[in-house]
Amino acid sequence: MSLNRRDFLKLMGGTAAAFAFPSVIVQGCKRALEKASQRLPVIWIQGQSCSGCSVSLLNKIDPGIASVVTEYVSLDFHQTVMAGTGDVAVSVIEEAVEKKRKDFILVVEGSIPTKSDEYCTIGEVRGRRVGVREWVEKLGANAKAIVSVGSCAAFGGIPAALPRDGSGNPTGAISTAQLLKGKPVVNISGCPPHPDWMVGTLLYVLLNKGELPKLDEYNRPLLYYGKTVHEQCERLPDYKHNHFAKHWGDEGCLYNLGCLGMDSGCDIPKRKWVGTFNSCTNCGGGCIGCTEDVFPDYGNRGIFQHLNASREELNKLEHRETIETILKLRDGGVING
Ligand code: SF4
Ligand code: SF4
């Protein structure tokens, strides 16, 4: 068992949660994990996706992905990383459907096309190509829990984006929850989501015998999405002291360049990417709001533009001096909106 106390605390919520987990509870959780580790089969289906969520999962560093898939979960099916191919691979999900298996967690990555099943098929059953829609419907009917990983599966994401010419989404892409109406679906949004959010949620379900973690209004675990990026941002002191970047690469808060940290819930500034190496805001890219249901369209706004906040809305902000600075910059034409 390679999940030490520090790893476990970090995975389950970072520093804030660490103080709330007395070591006796942590030891109890570790023992529960040891006992339960053979009992979390996962079937991971990829629909209309770029596989970025899976790549993010493979970047799991602490504990490493090898440890996760050999000690805590049994990844029964995953199109991209499984060793089996062709009929052998498809037989895993075919059997799960036929035998009405109820022991697995269904993880869906990518959106579901509704205009034609031919837009996204996974394997063949008796010579018939099977659409991802059909697999998700049939597997979702019996799964112990359903988890959408990535904003494509959670909300439609990039495959559901609307062309600017008004022609509508070409594949009619929808989220897992829109397909499986009425079924509880946990959304691990993000483009991609942090690997800790995916693995941490699976382990939560494992430890709590199928029970889901507390969710926010978008069905995302509060543990990871409960605070905004802005609240946890490395550049928050700049924001509070009216130190704003005017150009990419400048020091200072990135609000005027279009940072969406105020509108986006996730803990990346604290958790950071690639083994605590860096964050979107710290590296100077700003937050593009990839965890939110309106990503990437934001109406017709798109990303990397200032929100069209009205004076009224700005006046609701807390810091008087900040509002004045923003209005000054806006009136001077430095920022959009
Ligand atoms: S959520 Fe983003 S990273 Fe994940 S499959 Fe969709 S486009 Fe790729
Ligand atoms: S960079 Fe973005 S998230 Fe950070 S303080 Fe500024 S507006 Fe908030």
What does this structure look like?
The protein is of the alpha/beta class and 337 residues long. The protein folds into two domains: 5-225, Rossmann fold; 229-331, Cytochrome-c3 hydrogenase, C-terminal domain (Cytochrome-c3 Hydrogenase, Chain A, domain 2). It is 38% helix and 10% strand. The chain contains 17 helices and seven strands. It has a five-stranded parallel β-sheet with strand order 2-1-3-6-7, with helices on both faces. It has a two-stranded antiparallel ribbon with strand order 4-5. Strand 4 and strand 5 (128-131) form a beta hairpin. The longest helix is centred in the N-terminal third of the chain and has 14 residues, at 23-36. Residues 49-50, 52-53, 109-110, 150-152, 157-158, 191-192 line the site of one iron/sulfur cluster (SF4).
What is the CATH homologous superfamily assignment of the largest domain?
NADH:ubiquinone oxidoreductase-like, 20kDa subunit
**What is the gyration radius calculated from CA atoms?**
21 Å
CATH structural fold name of the largest domain: Rossmann fold
Structural class by SSE content = alpha/beta
Order of helices and strands: HHHEHHEHEEEHEHHEHHHHHHHH
What is the CATH domain class of the largest domain? Answer: Alpha Beta
Strand percentage lies at 5-15%
Shape: globular
Low-pLDDT residue intervals, each spanning 5 or more residues:
13-28, 332-337
**What's the number of structural domains?**
2
| Main sheet properties | 5 strands, parallel
Instruction: Please bin the fraction of helical residues.
Output: 25-40%
The CA-CA distance between the termini, in Å, is 53 Å
